[in-house]
Amino acid sequence: MTTKKLPKIYVLASVPNMGKTTTALLLEKHFKKEGKKVACLQLNKGQYDVSSYLEKGCYHYTMPYEAAKSKEEFEKWTPKGFDVYIFEITFAYSPMGLVFADLFENINEVIDYENKDGWEKHVRGLYRKWHVSDEIYTDDLISDSWKLFHDRNVQTVYTKSPVELKGPYVSDGFELNNPESFVFDYISPKYEFPRGNKKIIAVGAFPSEYRDIFPGLTWYRFDYVSFLERFRNEDYDLAIIGECRNNNLRFYDRPSVKNALKFSYPSDNGCCYNSILFCAKNVSICT
After folding, report:
1. 159: which residues sit within 8 A by CB, 6+ positions away?
2. 164 in the same domain as 85
3. Which domain holds residue 97?
4. Residues 97, 89 contacting (CB under 8 angstroms)
5. What is the CATH number of the domain that holds 75?
6. In sequence order, which residues have a C-beta less than 8 Å from that of residue 210 and are 6 or more positions away?
7. Entry pTM
8. Dihedral (CA of 209, 109, 49, 59) sign
9. Which of 75, 97, 163, 279 would you label with 200, given CA atoms 20 to 30 Å apart?
């Protein structure tokens, strides 16, 4: 199979709060308008990222650390059936970010316009701050990480730009410009999700893969009131209670069946049941 027939993967890498997710969502929207089927991939996903993708109806998946072993291993873990893949690397200069970046020849580095003229200095400052008590994370190690990351074709993508630019950028009005200038690689995805016929109800932010595994999943978005009405009726096989983004929200109803999965990010303090996980034992949730 020639590369022209393989799907493209656009890697977006940076440090936190540079606008990677915003850029990914705008790029996804751009390709979707062209009639392409798009999948968004992340290494890790915080509570706000998940809900952003879910609410916009995006196909969203988390890549496990095992996928960093090789390009072939990455393809084994990548869901097949898409024309375009958009992969976010949150901590581009960390060891985990670098091993994933090393799988690709072309990477789009996302930088907010404020750091346009002092990007390397900004990155160095962040890593010194994050590793202030880590004696092994020296300036030399940061320099090595910088060199390793840039030892490939790196296309800069500016975000929050107040002016027009020649290359790819996102304006401060959240408009994607020059998307044809993003760089990409080709991949050959292999992963196929199992399919379950269980009756699933879900609320809040939860791993998006469940929507692929359970085609009949009913998502109540962040309408916890409506979800609770269904939850109390117990006319389902499994209930997924996602991140509520409200530390004061608590559930007092506990179904007799106890077929419920709870997800909470980053701790158990703010997701309905405090330090409680309901999950039926010895029950297959897929069949």
Report:
1. 18, 19, 22, 23, 110, 111, 112, 113, 169, 170
2. yes
3. 3-186
4. yes
5. 3.40.50
6. 200, 202, 217, 240
7. 0.84
8. negative
9. 75
